[in-house]
Q: What sequence folds into this?
């Protein structure tokens, strides 16, 4: 609704709770175990969530928050020097042990 409102078909959104997770593998998820069919187990129709209360305003709020988070992540990655230092340390030790 925020990006392409012309593609939104509110009349096609399920109103019967279809987008809510079924929890069919919850016993494994509770143990932090993921399997390849986790999405299908929760969302067999591949529809997730409840789009009925959606608005363009809420979408813009969500998008802005995601953009701010992404920008913060990119800044942290660009500013990071420790990863390169550890990588160099690792490879220097590997080279010495060959």
A:
């Amino acid at each position: 609704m925020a990006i392409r409102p012309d593609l939104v078909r509110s009349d096609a959104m399920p109103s019967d709770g279809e987008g809510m997770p079924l929890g069919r593998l919850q016993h494994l998820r509770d143990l932090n175990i993921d399997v390849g069919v986790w999405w299908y187990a929760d969302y067999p129709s591949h529809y997730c969530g409840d789009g009925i209360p959606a608005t363009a305003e809420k979408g813009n709020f969500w998008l802005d928050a995601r953009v701010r988070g992404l920008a913060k992540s990119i800044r942290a990655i660009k500013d990071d020097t420790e990863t390169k230092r550890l990588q160099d340390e690792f490879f220097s030790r590997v080279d010495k042990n060959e």
Observations:
- The chain is about 50% helix and 0% strand.
- The mean pLDDT is 93.
- The chain has two domains: 1-52, 55-98.
